[in-house]
Structures are given as C-alpha cells and as structure tokens.
Amino acid sequence: TRPATSSSIPMQQLAETRYSNNTVLNLILNEKKIFAEQHGILYKCTVEQTDFRFMDDIDITTIFSNLLENALSASALCKTNKEVSVIVSSHNNFVIINVKNSCNSYTKCGTFSSKDYGTGLYNVENSVKKYEGFLKISYSQTEFNCNVVLSNTH
Fold first, then answer.
1. Are 83 and 144 in contact (CB under 8 A)?
2. What's the pTM value of the predicted model, to 2 decimals?
3. For a pLDDT cut of 70, what percent of the chain falls above it?
C-alpha cells in the first residue's frame, strides 16, 4: 500500500478535524485518518488538552508520522479487524503518546529493542530523547503497541 501524502490530499480535507491546538499535529492526524478511511481501517484518535509548545514541529512530525505510518501499514495488511488507535494525554510534566494497531505478522509476544528498529523508529527514538523521554514497544500475535513518554520541562 502506498502511503497517503499531504501533496495528494486537498488542504481543506486535512484541516477537517481539530484534534489539538497544534496545527502540525492536526494536519498529520487528519492525513492519517483519510488514509485509514481509504483502506477500511477503524481509526480512533483522542488528544486530551495537551500543550505542544515545548516541542519543535519537526519532532512532532517525526514522532507522529513515523508511528502512524507504521501502524497504518501493518493494519492495512490485516484481513479483518483493521484498527489503529492514537491516544495523547498529559500528566504532570509529561506528555504520553500511545499508538496501537492490529497486526497479523507476529508469531510471538515480546518487546522491541532499539537493535530491532528501522530508520523510522530510530528517528522517533532520537526525537524522543531530545525531550528526556522514552519509547517502549510491545507486541502480541494480533496487536502492536508503541508508548512514548516526553518531558515537557526540558
């Protein structure tokens, strides 16, 4: 499946849903929502009131675009139960990002370590480290789960 790019989607469609007070994040989440709809993927997205002013736009793009691209690509390969869930929340001085997707390509359960990362996850991890955060990835036979925690006080 070819990923949806912002150049192939009219701007007014990308600005359709206002998930947060961050324009860049809204564009990314709307772009991925359109891709999900086009591929029969149930797309659930919840962004609690979260202030992203502490982050550079390039890091928002790196983290959300890579995690969602991976999640949507894996879910699109499923024959049934295609689903991607994004939850963003903040607690005290931390922003928590959870991206979960259905998958059917893993034969065991466990966690990913950085030696297993491709270029996208490597870039995500580098962006996360800039904000004194961490990336934790776990998976089962049917679900892939990425958790990111960022400090907004750096």
1. no
2. 0.85
3. 81
